[in-house]
Amino acid sequence: MEITSAVGAILGAFGLSGAAGLNAWLPLLVVGVADRAGWIDLGSSYGWLSSTPVLIGIGLVFLLDLVGDKIPALDSALHAIGTLVAPTSGAILFTAESSLSSHLSPAVAAVLGAVTAGSVHVGRSVARPFVTGTTAGLGNPVVSSAEDGTSLVLTILALVVPVVAFIAVLILLIGLGWLAFRAARWLRGRRARRAPEPTS
Asked: Which value, in Å, is the radius of gyration of the alpha carbons in the chain?
């Protein structure tokens, strides 16, 4: 039973970190509220996530990010900031989720969380200019909303059905990798078309 609990905690931690890569604030907010409501137990080490000041702060930043990520140009600035925020959020979530049930050291858990969230965030950041360029920015709110929705679903799955959340993160990473590859090819082609013709 202890092994099953530990595996479930680690798989759930991967799910939460993947969700943080799509929206760094949403899973932190959900986990904090869930701990505050008694649905999960983060333990004394991470109980600060469910404190009133932290929940209010995360909630406000979440709302600002939610709106800002729908606006072309501003979303690029937020993604740049997210290069630091997303891995940090992923590291916190991974260590908080796995601290009570698994035997992973906090350092290893933090690295796994940061890498997972960072990889997802990089994938979405590379793909976003492709969406902006091919839709004149009109597709940004749609894609951003899809990312927020996916982050919420992943967070809930991580807390309820960890193995499904883990599989979903793997699929997400593969999909973002493919999309990032296509976006990189599109950007190279665009630069090549804009390059001046050589003069004889």
From this structure: 18
Let me know if residue 142 belongs to a domain: yes
**C-alpha to C-alpha distance for 63 and 26, rounded to whole angstroms:** 9
Residue 199 maps to a domain? no
Task: Give the Cα separation of 53 and 59 in Å (integer).
Answer: 10
Report the amino acid identity of residue 131. Answer: V
**Closest Cα to residue 145, out of 22, 61, 46?**
22
Mean pLDDT of the chain: 86
**Domain with 39 in it:** 2-194
Look at the chain and report how many structural domains it folds into. Answer: 1
Q: Of the candidates 146, 130, 141, which has an alpha carbon nearest to the alpha carbon of residue 70?
A: 141
**Angle in degrees, 0-180, between the axes of helices 74-98 and 140-160, rounded to the nearest 10:** 0
Q: Does residue 175 form part of some domain? A: yes
| Integer Cα distance of 156 and 79 in angstroms | 24
What's the pLDDT score for residue 140?
76
On whether residue 72 sits in a domain, the answer given is: yes
Task: Please classify residue 68 by burial: count the beta carbons closer than 10 Å to its beta carbon, then call 0-12 exposed, 13-18 middle and 19+ buried.
Answer: middle
Q: Report pLDDT digits (tens) over 55-111.
A: 999 999 999 999 988 887 787 788 888 889 999 999 999 999 988 777 788 899 999
